[in-house]
Amino acid sequence: MSSRIVSLPHEVLLLLASHLYGVEDFFNLSLTCKDMRSILADILPNSILRIAARQSFFSPFPSSNLLVAATARELGNWARKSTTNEEILATAFQGGMEGLLGLALRQCSLTMSQLRELQDIQYSIVNPVVNIIDQCIGQQWRAIPDFWSGGASDAASISADASDTFFHIAVYGELFSSDIETYLNGNQALPVQRPLTLDTRLEYLKYCVPDKNCRLMSKEQAMSAVVRGVPIDPRRVVKDVGPYAGYEDKSDRHSELDDDEPQNFYFDENDELHILSTQNVLDDGNNEPRANPFTDDAFRRNPCNNNASQNYFFDEDEDDEFAENDWFGRNNGFNDDSESDEDNAREPQEPLNDNNFALVWLLDSSRWRPHWQEARHRVGKDFEVTYRDLEHFTADDPGNWRQRLWENTMLCQGLEGLGMILPGQQDAWLKKIRRWRRKIAKMTEEPRMLVLGEQITYDYPYLFGELRICGQGFVGATQ
């Protein structure tokens, strides 16, 4: 039989192999005979990725989140090549992790060798670090005796999955760590890559780290912004797509609005938010309007232009590169052309977790931070620290920026980088940790602070600050 199969043209055999339902099937096919093994060695790496993605739907390895983390760095580098690519990436975020994987299947690749490395990473890094996270915000944490009666010093009502939280950090690092490196190098490294924007990072956190509280607070603040005197920053608005599709009952969305108040926004017949005048809404710390880096095709108009109505959402009849169904035959949520209002009001398959809140809680956890402190202290002492915890981060407390930059740089190194808190993995990272500290110690200029609404962050990828922006009004004592 095998002799008859291999007599087919090689292109046909490779095409057939690309439609297999799992890596094991591909591997077994390659073992049928020497000729078949030689032919399958020429299969495209993108086909390997697609086979692995199909398998992730039926098998725990590789998980779809692991495949996203494995390809996110390649996606980030692709997005840096042009603003158009970056817009496509930002749009893909709106489909959540599934949307990001869908884009990876179009743009990225994975070899069998890399797949074997992923299996090693799963057991040597992912599983041990997920166990630590579970002790901080997961089931092991909630199982502490007398949890609500002093057994846990940081007791809170958090619904989150430790594995998901791991990949929320890992994918952020894979996407944006090179921008941190560019910042540390003072944009002097050759070749200098165009960094991804804060807008893009916020899109990732809004949709790929979905949180029902971020969604609710965004809607609540949009409705009451005029009454409270706080302008709306369109970068904080969350759409009813991807993980948020049909989440909120919108029947009484307008109930809190005062008809007598002049409003700088309105909801159209499709219940989408439009902003009329946004002059001085976007502030990068210099009290000047900030131009939105996305083009008209992505976010419709410059937010600093107050001469006409502003619509920061895609038109209903707009063609979209991601309009077709995803690779499982499900609608990926990027385009609503084929969906009725009733379809848009569908309930999500699973309730949203407190993903943003859980990640903020983790980063400040007394069970999480000592692991990173141990890794830092192997190369040198901490910079002078006067803040009590990460939560107390304000514009009038600028003296701790070196320590924040060092901690954030270590945290945001991606999939393998999270292994630096494991004793068996630290040695491989000591040289880099030492180099980062040396560069930060030589810096004389404080990173520029960016203001969004009532929250601040830095102009480099600062995960904690950006999480607070997306969770503004819910996380901690923010407003």
Descriptive key words:
single chain; 479 residues; mainly alpha; two-stranded antiparallel ribbon; two-stranded antiparallel sheet; 21 helices; 46% helix
Task: Provide a brief overview of the structure.
46% of the residues lie in helices and 3% in strands. It has 479 residues and is mainly α.
List the helices and strands and how they pair.
Blueprint: H1 2-6, H2 10-17, H3 23-30, H4 34-40, H5 45-56, H6 64-79, H7 83-93, H8 96-107, H9 112-137, H10 139-142, H11 162-184, H12 198-208, H13 212-228, E1 265-267, E2 273-275, H14 296-299, H15 341-344, H16 355-363, H17 369-377, H18 401-411, H19 414-417, H20 430-442, E3 449-452, E4 455-458, H21 463-470
Helix pairs in contact: 5-8, 6-7, 6-8, 6-11, 7-12, 9-11, 12-21, 16-21, 18-20
Spatial order of strands in the largest sheet: 1-2
The helix tally amounts to 21
Beta percentage is: under 5%
Helix content class: 40-55%
Please mark out the parts with pLDDT under 50 across 5 or more consecutive residues, or reply none.
249-267, 275-348, 473-479
Q: Could you give the order of the helices and strands?
A: HHHHHHHHHHHHHEEHHHHHHHEEH
Q: What's the number of extended β-strand segments?
A: 4
Main sheet record: 2 strands, antiparallel
Q: Give the overall pLDDT as a whole number.
A: 76
Query: Structural class of the helix and strand makeup?
Result: mainly alpha
Region (Disordered): 241-264, 279-303, 325-351
Domain F-box: 2-52
Protein name: F-box domain-containing protein
Organism: Clonostachys rhizophaga
